[in-house]
Amino acid sequence: MKDQIDNNRELRSKIKDDVFIKQQLSLLSPGIDNSEKRFLVHEFTRSAMLLPDFNDYQRLSPLINALVDEVDTNDLLGCSTALEMLADIASSKQENINYFESIGLLQKIYKLFQTTKEDTDMGITHTACIRFFGYLSTTDSNALEKFPIFTSDVFDAIYHFDSLDPLRRKLAFETFAVVTKTIGAKRFLSSENCQYNIAKAFNCLAVAIARGSATPERKAWYLDNITTIFGNVESAESSNILKIWFNYLGEHFPKLLFDCLKKLIPELQIASLNALIALMKHQWAPEYFCVIDGFINFLLDREVHFSTIGYQLKYDLICRFIEIKPSSINSDLMEKLIIYRNMGVYAPPERHLIATEKID
Predict the structure, then answer these.
(1) Which of 232, 269, 285, 309 has the smallest CB count inside 10 Å?
(2) pLDDT < 50 positions in the chain
């Protein structure tokens, strides 16, 4: 924390330092040979604009413009790196988005998104554009409406995920998860007049997780999107919308998630537990899982092997159940959950405790 405060103080000092700014500008010579030095300068610009109180847009405009100029398809790697930096900046606060809009950057990237879509040689740039608008939407709740071609492409990719290669499929679901995060996006996608079929999109996500041909790694990818979507609770309104969306995953989804947890594959266990913890932020969620035969007893069983992270996540999940006291957990099971919590994360299985007591 102290290091971060010191770094921010140093950044603010550099922003006000005319000599330092001139020095940075002197390092911005064009050409691929000088790209490493330029991007060190761009990293300063990015860090400065990420400061919560940053508002020196005019003062840093030459440096900002230099970063924007990197969005040039003559250097695909430089272009993609610049887009990633600009995405970080845009997602940090609305003021940065407003500035980018005022200098025409958003429309520039929107056009680039469209022109690179069908060009196979521009795949890396198109992917960076997708990520840019995905990040943008986490701060600008109207982004889905402002950039309809982007939004349509996201949903089209979800509807036809079977036709995508694994990495494109991963990107499609990740982007879908990210763009649903704000309350503005939730309202828009839930409105009666919305042209996008949110129910179909969630059904596709459930199908992707359930598919037997999906490797554990890919199932974990898709479950991470459940965590992203349901882990962001802004208000009661947001939670109510998410309950409707959860039902779009299908009546068998809770059992599917439990089955993923029982696979005993570390990455799948961790993804499943993270998804459950995200879901349990909502008062409505426990009832979907606690009624599953064997679910609570599985969590209580210390003989089931988990990774170190998995044990901690399972403990956190149990603590959450104790905190919210779901009506579907009877008093006997609740008492066992409390005992589990009191024994700690890494307590040995009960039979080992009994054996130890007999020896003593």
Answers:
(1) 309
(2) 351-360
For residue 155, with 0-12 CB atoms within 10 Å meaning exposed, 13-18 middle and 19 or more buried, which class applies? Answer: buried
Q: What pLDDT sits at residue 2?
A: 61
CB 222 within 8 A of CB 249: no
Task: Name the residue type at position 235.
Answer: S
Kindly state the tokens that stand for 165: 């290669």
- Spatial contact of 200 and 176, defined as CB atoms under 8 Å apart: no
List, for residues 168-207, the tens digit of each pLDDT value: 999 999 999 999 999 999 999 999 889 999 999 999 999 9
The secondary structure of the chain in percent helix, strand, coil, rounded to multiples of 5, reads 70, 0, 30
For tokens 């998410």, name the residue. 242
**Longest Cα pair distance anywhere in the chain, in angstroms?**
77
- Whole-prediction pTM: 0.87
Instruction: Return phi, psi of residue 231, to 5°.
Output: -85, -5
Q: Distance from CA of residue 123 to its chain's centroid?
A: 22
Distance between alpha carbon 124 and the CA centroid of its chain, in Å? 20
For every residue of 45-111, DSSP letters joined together read HHHHHTSTT---TTTTHHHHHHHHHT--TTSHHHHHHHHHHHHHHHHH-HHHHHHHHHTTHHHHHHH
